[in-house]
Amino acid sequence: MSPQETKDQKLTAIFNALISLLKEKEFTAIKITELTQRAHVSRTYYYHNFSSLAEIIEKYELLSVTTYLRKLPHQSRFTMETLMEHYFQLAFQSRDAQLTLIAAGKEQEIIKSFMTAYLYLLKNDLIVKKNQSSLTTDTYWQSFIAGAIVNMSISWLHRGAPESPQYMGQKIVHFLKID
Q1: Which of 50, 58, 84, 153 can pair with 169 through a Cys bridge, CB separation 3.0 to 4.6 Å?
Q2: Residue limits of the Transcriptional regulator TetR C-terminal Firmicutes type domain (predicted)?
Q3: Is the pLDDT higher at 69 or at 145?
Q4: Residue 84 CA to chain centroid, in angstroms?
């Protein structure tokens, strides 16, 4: 196993342990010792890699998005509709963890992770922009889009994900009129 695979595996273990503990207690009641024991990682690992429990969520969510995007058929660029369809597929696949984080009031960590991934795709010109609007590079637009999409996925998950991810991608594009 490569060092990166080991690192990703430990991040996944500590994230899953955190989700497990969040099902039992409040976020603020979680102790580092019980978290690292449940994850089967050392306290040293935790302190070398994270400054807070919230950072575990942010790093894992980002890993999850990047891992998911790497598994997609190779495309040079994504339309907004396709990107959103894939985001909703990922949200559905990780719905238990997503709903646990939401119940714990950790929506902001999900939003931050989405925004980081979105910015990465924009900076690397991996999103097709039909209108070359300056909105896509505006910091407030990026915050708006991340919050809107994550909140829409939260609502969708709370409702039991009755519509398909493809439909949700189309709906977002319709709301934004950008694709």
Answers
A1: 84
A2: 106-176
A3: 145
A4: 12
So what's the pLDDT on residue 149?
A: 95
Query: Could you tell me if 46 and 14 are in contact, meaning their C-beta atoms sit under 8 angstroms apart?
Result: yes
CA 178, distance to chain mean position in Å, is 22
How many angstroms separate the CA atoms of 125 and 76, rounded? 9
Largest CA distance in the chain: 51
Helix, strand or coil for residue 120? helix
Which amino acid appears at position 33 of this protein?
T
Q: Cα 5 vs. chain centroid, distance in angstroms? A: 19
DSSP character for 104? T
> Top-level CATH class of 1-50?
mainly alpha
Token output for 106: 């950790």
Residue pair 169/179 in contact (Cβ under 8 Å)? The answer is: no
Which amino acid is present at 87?
Y
Cα separation, 158 vs 153, whole angstroms: 8
Tokens of 171: 């709906």
Query: Which tens digits make up the pLDDT trace of 112-136?
Result: 989 888 888 888 777 776 655 656 6
Chain segment 11-59, per-residue pLDDT in tens: 999 999 999 999 999 999 999 999 999 999 999 999 999 999 999 999 9
Q: State the span(s) of the chain assigned CATH 1.10.10.60.
A: 1-50
